[in-house]
Amino acid sequence: MLKVKNLTGGYFGNPVLKDVNFEINDGELVGLIGLNGAGKSTTIQEIIGLLTPYSGLIELDGMTLLQDLYAYRKKIGFIPETPSLYEELTLREHLEVTALAYGIPEDVAMARAQKLLETFRLSDKLEWFPINFSKGMKQKVMIICAFLIEPSLYIIDEPFMGLDPLAIQDLIDLMLEMKKNGSSILMSTHILSTAEKFCDKFVVLHEGRVIAFGTMDELRQHFGNESASLDEIYLALTQQAKAGAEHE
Ligand SMILES: Nc1ncnc2c1ncn2[C@@H]1O[C@H](COP(=O)(O)OP(=O)(O)OP(=O)(O)O)[C@@H](O)[C@H]1O
């Protein structure tokens, strides 16, 4: 379970995030949504420990990063928006390095990887180097490495960019399977129609603040329209927040 409590943080002393609060229970898929510059990537960087909060607390399964950096990091599988692979390592070596870094026995890792490689149609490319992969294939390697770990929390930044429709469906199926196994998932996305279908809850960020957090039903109630789509709610919420800021 992830708890983000009163998080204020950002870059070089500039608080991009202001008093951010939300939680992800075990077995929950939460969508992180917001306009360009709203603070989604900054939130993710705070959770994975690339940034240090100015104030507030981030707790994963009751543990903070400061209590045990290595144990905390081992609980997170992160899939960045832009794939970053080691040019000098083959796909097989990427899997081996991931298993080593997360303390997973090689036979266990390779057994898990086999299924994932089949799902993403990369089984015959184990000896390939990243330079020979397309952008979507590189992203699939990042996905396989993250799912190989079977972490407590998956953080997936813009998962649907660059993936073909088949791979998107495969990724969604995997997320749903991991959710069933009790993992928590935080997914940042601009593809609201897909998010609406699969996410249990939504964190709506606007200019570094959480302007709504809850299930689709809770957001609809808040909005006062029982049949509104996430797109409609989201646009209305951001306009309300903009009008509020202009009024101040
Ligand atoms: N490395 C950085 N140094 C300084 N400011 C940054 C840095 N990265 C982002 N910011 C600022 O933080 C704010 C939030 O940016 P962030 O990247 O978190 O937004 P986002 O919601 O992920 O946007 P997008 O949808 O465009 O990816 C923006 O005002 C941005 O200019």
Automatic annotation (TrEMBL):
<dbReference type="InterPro" id="IPR027417">
    <property type="entry name" value="P-loop_NTPase"/>
</dbReference>
<dbReference type="InterPro" id="IPR003593">
    <property type="entry name" value="AAA+_ATPase"/>
</dbReference>
<dbReference type="GO" id="GO:0005524">
    <property type="term" value="F:ATP binding"/>
</dbReference>
<dbReference type="InterPro" id="IPR003439">
    <property type="entry name" value="ABC_transporter-like_ATP-bd"/>
</dbReference>
<dbReference type="InterPro" id="IPR017871">
    <property type="entry name" value="ABC_transporter-like_CS"/>
</dbReference>
<feature type="domain" description="ABC transporter">
    <location>
        <begin position="2"/>
        <end position="232"/>
    </location>
</feature>
<keyword id="KW-0547">Nucleotide-binding</keyword>
<keyword id="KW-0813">Transport</keyword>
<dbReference type="Pfam" id="PF00005">
    <property type="entry name" value="ABC_tran"/>
</dbReference>
<protein>
    <submittedName>
        <fullName>ATP-binding cassette domain-containing protein</fullName>
    </submittedName>
</protein>
<keyword id="KW-0067">ATP-binding</keyword>
<dbReference type="InterPro" id="IPR051782">
    <property type="entry name" value="ABC_Transporter_VariousFunc"/>
</dbReference>
<dbReference type="GO" id="GO:0016887">
    <property type="term" value="F:ATP hydrolysis activity"/>
</dbReference>
